[in-house]
């Protein structure tokens, strides 16, 4: 079955008809950006075919296939009038569910309602259970992969776009560390810019307020925290880390 899906998705990915459909969809989207009243100029058959291609591609294990399926449904979603069509709306739901893209699913469907399509509803139930994070929010499939890598490796590096949800992953990983190690570890969170310190610290303070942790943004640890045996959650940007290491050397 996996071989069949791989073959179909690879064939779809290279299909000249799909390439032409996406080109026309992108042209329509550009017109929409220039004119909010613009109505998409694709036939029902072309829209149906786009949804079928997206359905095939989203089942692939290849990242570029999944990305293309997401691109298709994201562009179609911009034409809100198309969401009145139940087939298109459910097709978008199906793709987003297969990709585990829960934030986007919540934009088009009430999470407390079933779609009435067994395949979609079962996928949603399974993924909501399997992808649940330690802070009870739902990981996307890609976020879950990163989270599992963090758990399984002492050293792990990854990069992601601004909208990838990196702070969400680390927030969940922080709770995992605290509970898995029974609040025995000091934790350091290094952010790339000074501007992010307050944002990250605020989230972490809310997360650890029921644990014996204190969040500090300075290399100086107050003596009172040492005496009370609090565990420390450091939140620094890189210059402060260098200063701290120099003092401890």
TrEMBL record:
Species per Swiss-Prot/TrEMBL record: Citroniella saccharovorans
Keyword Nucleotide-binding included in the entry's annotation: yes
UniProt-listed InterPro entries: DEAD/DEAH_box_helicase_dom (IPR011545), P-loop_NTPase (IPR027417)
The keyword Amino-acid biosynthesis appears for this protein: no
Pfam families named among the record's database cross-references: DEAD (PF00270)
SUPFAM superfamilies reported in the protein's UniProt record: P-loop containing nucleoside triphosphate hydrolases
Domain of life: Bacteria
Keywords assigned by UniProt, alphabetized: ATP-binding, Helicase, Hydrolase, Nucleotide-binding
Transmembrane annotation, as ranges: none
Classification via Gene3D superfamilies: P-loop containing nucleotide triphosphate hydrolases
Ranges of residues in domain DEAD/DEAH-box helicase: 141-216
Gene Ontology MF terms in the entry: ATP binding; helicase activity; nucleic acid binding
Name used for this protein in its record: DEAD/DEAH box helicase
């Amino acid at each position: 079955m996996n071989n069949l899906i791989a073959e179909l998705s690879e064939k779809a990915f290279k299909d000249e008809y799909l390439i032409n459909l996406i080109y026309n969809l992108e042209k329509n989207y550009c017109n929409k950006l220039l004119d909010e009243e613009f109505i998409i100029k694709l036939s029902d058959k072309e829209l149906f075919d786009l949804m079928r291609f997206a359905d095939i591609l989203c089942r692939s294990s290849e990242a570029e296939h999944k990305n293309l399926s997401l691109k298709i449904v994201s562009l179609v979603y911009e034409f809100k009038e198309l969401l009145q069509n139940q087939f298109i709306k459910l097709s978008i739901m199906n793709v987003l569910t297969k990709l585990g893209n829960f934030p986007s699913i919540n934009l088009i469907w009430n999470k407390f309602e079933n779609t009435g399509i067994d395949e979609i509803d079962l996928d949603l139930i399974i993924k909501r259970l399997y992808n649940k994070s330690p802070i009870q929010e739902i990981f996307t499939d890609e976020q879950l992969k990163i989270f599992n890598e963090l758990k399984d490796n002492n050293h792990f590096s990854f990069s992601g776009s601004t909208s990838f949800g990196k702070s969400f992953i680390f927030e969940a990983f922080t709770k995992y560390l605290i509970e898995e190690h029974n609040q025995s570890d000091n934790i350091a969170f290094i952010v790339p810019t000074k501007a992010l310190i307050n944002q990250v610290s605020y989230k972490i303070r809310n997360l650890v307020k029921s644990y014996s942790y204190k969040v500090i943004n300075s290399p100086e640890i107050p003596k009172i925290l040492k005496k009370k045996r609090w565990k420390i959650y450091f939140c620094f940007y890189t210059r402060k880390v260098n200063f701290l290491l120099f003092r401890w050397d």
